[in-house]
Design brief:
The complex is a heterodimer of chains A (281) and B (311).
Chain A (H helix, E strand, L loop, with lengths): L1 E13 L2 E14 L3 E5 L6 H9 L6 E6 L2 E2 L7 E4 L11 H6 L9 H14 L15 H14 L4 E5 L7 H18 L2 E6 L2 H7 L2 E5 L6 E6 L12 H26 L15 E4 L5
Parallel strand pairs in A: 3-8, 3-9, 6-7, 7-8, 10-11
Antiparallel strand pairs in A: 1-2, 1-4, 4-5, 9-10
Helix pairs in contact in A: 3-4, 6-7
Chain B lengths: L1 H49 L6 H5 L3 H12 L2 H4 L14 H7 L2 H32 L1 H15 L7 H8 L6 H24 L3 H9 L4 H12 L1 H25 L5 H11 L2 H34 L7
Helix pairs in contact in B: 3-14, 6-7, 6-9, 6-12, 6-13, 7-9, 8-9, 9-12, 10-11, 12-13, 12-14, 13-14
Classes of the chains: A alpha/beta (281), B mainly alpha (311).
Chain lengths: 281, 311
């Protein structure tokens, strides 16, 4: 399986004219990668994720999975959102089993799969609980189980832990990392949290401020899991990526304070460069 | 670490259930006390009005709660129990309480009104519910039928009566009443059911779509269940509009039912009867609300966690 963003550009027509959200995105994602998209707010990283999910289409360019252009949502590319988006009328188990109905599996098998994935996110004894009876972290784990249960080719996560408190988030990082190492599922993970990206990803893609372009990619394949932010190499990588991002965040802030509303970054073309983090080869 | 997290969640659930039960009992107590106070106040005001010297007519036009209670007791036929039952002129003395209840005017009037209500409400719902679904689903339907429903909803249903009498007056005496009830309820049902579907969080639909649910399956397994609280509200609003329209129509069209009793007692100058019938109409509204819609809504709220302790 291979994911390919081919010269993707996205233009939104707003009241104050056309806004270029994404420009000239070329990105390849291989099977089994855990790619984190990092950028300042409004850089279009979520839009990119939506395009891959099939909820949005590029204005020009193409998004392709295995040489087929993405034209709509598919059970092969399941997305998780910042909100758990659980179905409130179903209990945790039936939420996890929801997508399985579309795979036309026998009912007993659906239940067995749902139980297995509830166990994977350590909620085996909460199958009968209604979503509102669970904590925020538990709900997001049910959402993770629901997404993984249908065995998608790629799991898309749009800031899935942003609404959780720091402790729950750390806990879920460990859980997600373990699940990824176990299943080697291809994951595209959108975040504005550099620490989160470095802790989890095999690759971190940094975006520029609007219009979003790829500024730099960091290959973290050689950083061993589990990654502790107290390790020197991990801490160094975090600060390197934060430095790369700082200019872009500053541009967004400048634009928000700018009374004249001049477009930012329109005249600079940034060539994406690649960096590999790890021990000397 | 995970363990403590889990037990916290469970504890929060239990405490929440305890919180949501208490208001029900104290609500009822407060309400009963309030009604008693209201009756006392009414009796006091009545005493003050009737005992004003030199004006005897005011007492008759402003009945006391006891007089109204007496009226209800007699006209429901409960006086059969106390032995001072007066049979309706031209009819035999009933042999049991049931026969007595059905001989007197309230039970037949309530029966006539409720039967019309059910008929009108069913027609309005059978038409309004699917139309509401269509209006929520299609932009064209929304701009045309949805807009028309909102416009017609602003017309007080009593305004349909002249037309109803012209069109259906010769068909039967109850056809105009049915027409007004349907028209009063139909548009409210369409508008609220459509709102219920429209207020479904778009994120739930996206969650369904990303899991491979499309088309009619998306509608029936995500949108419709997600809209259920809104739909129940829609059906409830439709019911209350039907009830009001029916009473308005019965007041004007002379063909039995509670609305007719109101009008007849006004013509006879029986203020006792007018007030008594108003109370009967209110109580029927409350009973349907409490016995039919409230349990459904409460059940949905506990299942969905809409009681508001945690968002």
């Amino acid at each position: 399986m291979q994911i390919q963003f081919d010269n993707v550009r996205k233009i939104y027509k707003g009241r104050s004219g056309a806004v270029t959200a994404l420009d000239g995105i070329n990105l390849n994602i291989q099977e089994g990668e855990f790619v984190c998209l990092v950028g300042p707010s409004g850089c279009g990283k979520s839009t990119l994720c939506n395009m891959l999910a099939g909820f949005d289409t590029p204005t020009t360019g193409r998004v392709m999975v295995d040489d087929e252009t993405v034209s709509g949502p598919s059970i092969a590319r399941v997305m998780m959102f910042q909100e758990p988006a659980l179905f409130p009328w179903l209990n945790a188990r039936d939420n996890v089993a929801f997508g399985l109905k579309n795979l036309k599996l026998p009912a007993t098998e659906q239940q067995a799969i749902a139980e297995r994935f509830l166990k994977m996110v350590h909620l085996a004894q909460f199958g009968d609980a209604q979503p509102h009876e669970l904590s925020g972290g538990m709900r997001q784990r049910v959402a993770l189980a629901r997404a993984l249960a249908v065995d998608p080719q790629v799991l898309l996560m749009d800031e899935p832990f942003a609404a959780l408190d720091a402790q729950t988030r750390d806990h879920l990082h460990i859980e997600l990392e373990n699940i990824w190492r176990e299943t080697r599922k291809t994951i595209v993970f959108v975040t504005h949290n550099v620490r989160e990206a470095v802790t989890l990803g095999t690759r971190v893609v940094v975006f520029t401020a609007r219009p979003g372009r790829i500024k730099r990619e960091f290959n973290l394949e050689e950083l061993d899991y589990p990654r502790r932010t107290t390790e020197t190499l991990v801490a160094e990588t975090i600060s390197r990526i934060q430095n790369t991002l700082r200019d872009e965040v500053a541009k967004v802030e400048a634009a928000e304070y700018d009374q004249n509303g001049t477009e930012i970054g329109a005249d600079e073309r940034i060539k994406p460069d690649r960096a590999t983090v790890g021990r000397a080869r | 670490m995970a363990q403590s997290h889990l037990t916290n969640g469970a504890a929060a659930t239990i405490s929440k259930k305890r919180v949501s039960q208490r208001p029900l009992e104290s609500d009822l107590l407060v309400r009963i006390l309030f009604i008693v106070l209201l009756l006392v106040f009414w009796q006091v005001v009545h005493y003050w009005v009737v005992t004003r010297p030199g004006d005897t007519s005011r007492g008759a036009l402003f009945p006391s709660p006891l007089e109204v209670g007496q009226w209800l007791w007699d006209k429901f036929g409960f006086s059969y129990l106390t032995g001072n039952y007066q049979p309706v002129p031209g009819e035999p003395m009933p042999h049991n309480l049931g026969a007595a209840l059905f001989q007197k005017e309230y039970i037949p009037a309530i029966y006539a009104s409720i039967a019309r209500l059910i008929e009108g409400y069913l027609i309005a719902t059978v038409i309004g519910f699917p139309v509401g679904l269509l209006v929520a689903r299609s932009a064209l339907m929304e701009k045309t039928v949805g807009w028309l429903a909102v416009s017609l909803q602003s017309l007080p249903s009593i305004c349909w009566i002249p037309l109803a009498l012209l069109w259906f007056g010769r068909l039967s005496i109850t056809a105009p009443i049915l027409f007004v009830t349907v028209m009063g309820s139909l548009f409210a049902t369409i508008v609220t059911v459509a709102d219920g579907i429209r207020n479904v969080p778009p994120l739930l639909a996206r969650a369904g779509r990303t899991l491979g649910t499309t088309g009619t399956r998306l509608y029936f397994s995500v949108l419709l269940p997600a809209a259920l609280p809104g739909i129940v509200t829609g059906l409830k609003v439709g019911w209350s509009f039907a009830w009001r329209s029916l009473m308005a129509a019965e007041l004007i069209v002379n063909s039995g039912g509670l609305g007719f009793l109101l009008q007849r007692d006004r013509e006879n100058g029986d203020a006792d009867g007018v007030v008594a019938t108003i109370i009967v109409i209110i109580v029927i509204g409350l009973v349907v609300q409490e016995l039919l819609f409230s349990p459904i809504q409460r059940r949905l709220q506990t299942l969905w966690g809409l009681t508001g302790v945690r968002s």
